[in-house]
Amino acid sequence: ARSCSSHRLLQPIQTAFMIPRCVPALIGGVVLGALTGVGLLVADLGPAVAALGGVGVLAAVVGFGVYAALVAFRKERYELYPNHLRCHHGGLVSDELTELDVRNITHVKLRLPWIRHKLFGVGDVFVESAGSGGSEVALNSIQDPERVYDEVQQLMQRNGYSLARGEVLHEEQPDLIGVVQRGQAA
Predict the structure, then answer these.
(1) Would the pTM count as exceeding 0.70?
(2) What is the largest CA-CA distance in the chain?
């Protein structure tokens, strides 16, 4: 993280950012590699060709997944300004910039994924804003997420928010069995 007098620049921790993006590629590579190997065995091309074909597909899928995760990591950065937040992100064929005005923030959420937080000390901060339907900034896999969460709240206070916390009197959430049964009925 780098800061100057007018803004603070944050970037995700590389390993913590890339692992959740590479795991699906690894699983997909194993499945596709195994299917390729079995297909080549069924085609009676021999076990050596089947093994080589399966390993080749595995390597190609995993390599592509790691490359895509690396490209996404290099594009991911977050900027905290006194009056707004910016999130730069993208993928292999896209670049996106989301900018939120601090005065329009409606909700800030801190998430500490158990494994990634224990291994790397990272977490995610989600900032939602009034306005268009998709106005959210997700600061993913950032170091010391509690401090960043507090910084966002301080920005909000400096922009006129009163962050007095009230007591939640009643909150409801559907039970998992109800969600599963509802999904099967549809």
Answers:
(1) yes
(2) 73
120-140 burial, b at 16+ Cβ within 10 Å, e below that, comes to bebbbbbbbbeeeeebbbbbb
Name the amino acid, one letter, at 54.
G
pLDDT tens-digit profile, the chain (186 residues): 544 457 889 999 999 999 999 999 999 999 999 999 999 999 888 889 999 999 999 999 999 999 999 999 999 999 999 988 999 999 999 999 988 888 888 888 999 998 889 989 999 999 988 765 667 888 999 999 999 999 999 888 888 776 665 555 555 566 666 556 665 665
**Residue 99 is encoded by which pair of tokens?**
């900018």
Q: How far is CA 108 from CA 22, 149, 167, in A?
A: 28, 8, 17
What gap in Å lies between CA 34 and CA 135, rounded to an integer?
41
Q: Is residue 65 a contact partner of residue 52, using CB atoms and an 8 Å limit? A: no
Sheet of 136-143, strand order: 105-111, 122-129, 136-143
- Give yes or no for a contact between 2 and 8, defined as CB atoms under 8 angstroms apart: yes
C-alpha–C-alpha distance, residues 106 and 37, integer Å: 52
Is the alpha carbon torsion for 124, 129, 131, 137 positive or negative? negative
